[in-house]
Amino acid sequence: MLLLLTIGLVIVALALLIVGFVQHTLALIYGSIACSAAAALTLIVFSRLTRRRSLRLGAAVPAELTAGLWAPERICAAGIGPDRARFDAALAEAAPELVGAGVQGS
């Protein structure tokens, strides 16, 4: 909600600035500056609230995501590297029927 408010304030500030320059009206230009300052304050509040929420989550959520993403059954066997024995061992766990099939490396 605060992010939408900030975007709205910036759009209003831009419109006031353009109309103020076209009509040579100093009050509209000051209004544009005020809207820009209000948008800046809103962004500061938004960033503080977001930081507090991320601190409340702590390290548990990233640890859960990492455990799911780096689970051994989800890692591609091609990421093992050039060691043929390690590749065959990983392939034997995932698809034993493919061990020894295909191009033989050196």
Give the amount of beta strand, in percent.
under 5%
CA gyration radius, whole angstroms: 29 Å
Low-confidence stretches: none
- Helix content estimate: over 70%
Number of helices: 4
Structural class: mainly alpha
What is the averaged pLDDT score? 78
Instruction: Please outline the major beta sheet.
Output: none
> Separation of termini?
60 Å
Estimate nothing, just give the exact number of structural domains: 2
Structure commentary:
With 106 residues, the protein is mainly alpha-helical. The chain is built from four helices and no strands. The protein starts with a helix and ends in a 12-residue tail after the last helix.
How do the helices and strands line up, and which of them pair or pack?
Elements (H helix, E strand, L loop, with lengths): L1 H22 L2 H32 L2 H10 L14 H11 L12
Helix pairs in contact: 1-2
Key traits:
4 helices, 106 residues, mainly alpha, 2 domains
Short structural summary:
The protein has 106 residues and is mostly helical. Helix content is 71%, strand content 0%.
